[in-house]
Amino acid sequence: MLKRCLSVSLLLGLSLWTAQALEVKIDESPENNQKCAGMYSRSAWGGPVDPFILAVFPNTTIEGVEDPIVSLIIFEWKDYDLIGVYPQPDSAMKAICDPDAVKKGFCEESHVGEWLLAPNATEKSGNVILTQAVHLNSAQPINYPIIKTGYYCVAVSGYSAPEFTGVIEFREAYGELPATQIPKLPFYGGSGASSTINTDMISVLLVMVAILNAFRNSFSFFLLLIVCMGYGVVKPSLGRTMVWVRWLAIAHFVFGLAYAITSLLVSPETANPFLLLVVLPLAATLTAFYVWTLNSLNFTLKDLRERKQTVKEAMYKKLWWCILISILVIFAFSFFNSFTFASASDPDYVPFHWKSRWFVFDGWLNLVYFADVAWIAYVWRPTANNRRFAMSDEIAQDENGEFEFADIGAPDDSDDEAQIGVKTRSTNSQPENSASAAQQGQASQPTRAPPKQESPRDSFDRETIFAVGEDGDKFSDDEGDEEATKLVGGRR
């Protein structure tokens, strides 16, 4: 037991002395007897060194075992079928070379303790398959160079060593970052620079990022919903509906925060069905936002169409298409991911999807969000029409292109119009003899200023409308008679 503790201490010291790459523990237990990781070639991402896999086993002795041997194999996942032999077509696979395998001709005596490979495995494999019997009494580091990009695995089996411990280092050409995380290298570079300044706030910063991410999503859906309801553009207030919208946004924030914190605590590999208790409430509030947003947008479009607000209607139509395309993209990716995760138990799942893991978990949703924000910002940019009709209504037009003005008069305007018409008709319907008598009376009297005419009808702003013969013209009756005489003479 003491020797085992010393071995572990030696491995930890070796890890501290060397560069901290992706280092994993490997031993005889079922959960640690095989370790796999994606590896990029040097030409894929570049780097100062050639990538490699390093297997280190400390020198140790085991009581009761003269020569403890550990069977080690390093291979690319596509060559998995080339490992082991089948004595009979229906028999179990034999994986390790032992005296019985030597007798049957599956391997040579010098290869006892190594993994068995299929005939012509060297020609059939696309990469080097390294198999070796590690003698723990005199173990040396084993270096496996990476020539091609792939998903590489290290498997061990205790041939004559009941207990053992080792360290496997997956060293990339560009640095210490695991291959699955290389697309996030710029982000990790900034995070690493900040962590050198303050190493005690990493956990707090992760929680803050989770809170801000949940707030961003909730606030974005909240703004989108009230805009689709026409708030600030079509109607000045939403009334009591705003209260329900706020409660929905708060619920979405709480469930989103719980989901974000759970994602930090639970890795995708250890996920279990209990996570549905966190995912389902978030999915419910998200669905409520989408359904309510689309219904509100349809009602707003209908209202703008009836009021013939073409400019605002065009803006909301573009927003409708943006939301519809986003929903289709999300459903398509969700449908695709559901089929992908259904095969997560397949041994080939991780080897063939490790490169796209970052995009599935972190990439595509953020890209959809960015595209939506960019499109909405472009549609709602301050153009001439947007500034013109932001706080006012567009003048409606009929199908013939004629403007439709609403009645802007006061409620009693019709009565005034009727009274003015009655007065005018009654004045014009006086008998002709009365008019002639008035003219004779005027002729016998001295010349005097004409009587003051009734002022024309004023508008609401006290401005004269359709004024003919204003007081400033000062036409006399004699000038009117002379003008009439000239007109009659001209016609003759």
UniProtKB/TrEMBL annotation:
<feature type="compositionally biased region" description="Basic and acidic residues">
    <location>
        <begin position="454"/>
        <end position="464"/>
    </location>
</feature>
<feature type="compositionally biased region" description="Polar residues">
    <location>
        <begin position="424"/>
        <end position="433"/>
    </location>
</feature>
<feature type="transmembrane region" description="Helical">
    <location>
        <begin position="274"/>
        <end position="298"/>
    </location>
</feature>
<feature type="compositionally biased region" description="Low complexity">
    <location>
        <begin position="434"/>
        <end position="445"/>
    </location>
</feature>
<dbReference type="InterPro" id="IPR053938">
    <property type="entry name" value="PTM1-like_N"/>
</dbReference>
<keyword id="KW-1133">Transmembrane helix</keyword>
<feature type="transmembrane region" description="Helical">
    <location>
        <begin position="204"/>
        <end position="231"/>
    </location>
</feature>
<feature type="signal peptide">
    <location>
        <begin position="1"/>
        <end position="21"/>
    </location>
</feature>
<feature type="transmembrane region" description="Helical">
    <location>
        <begin position="359"/>
        <end position="380"/>
    </location>
</feature>
<protein>
    <submittedName>
        <fullName>Uncharacterized protein</fullName>
    </submittedName>
</protein>
<dbReference type="InterPro" id="IPR053937">
    <property type="entry name" value="GOST_TM"/>
</dbReference>
<keyword id="KW-0812">Transmembrane</keyword>
<dbReference type="Pfam" id="PF06814">
    <property type="entry name" value="GOST_TM"/>
</dbReference>
<feature type="domain" description="GOST seven transmembrane">
    <location>
        <begin position="203"/>
        <end position="387"/>
    </location>
</feature>
<feature type="transmembrane region" description="Helical">
    <location>
        <begin position="243"/>
        <end position="262"/>
    </location>
</feature>
<feature type="region of interest" description="Disordered">
    <location>
        <begin position="408"/>
        <end position="492"/>
    </location>
</feature>
<keyword id="KW-0472">Membrane</keyword>
<keyword id="KW-0732">Signal</keyword>
<feature type="domain" description="PTM1-like N-terminal">
    <location>
        <begin position="32"/>
        <end position="171"/>
    </location>
</feature>
<dbReference type="InterPro" id="IPR009637">
    <property type="entry name" value="GPR107/GPR108-like"/>
</dbReference>
<dbReference type="Pfam" id="PF21902">
    <property type="entry name" value="PTM1-like_N"/>
</dbReference>
<feature type="transmembrane region" description="Helical">
    <location>
        <begin position="319"/>
        <end position="339"/>
    </location>
</feature>
<feature type="compositionally biased region" description="Acidic residues">
    <location>
        <begin position="408"/>
        <end position="418"/>
    </location>
</feature>
<comment type="similarity">
    <text>Belongs to the LU7TM family.</text>
</comment>
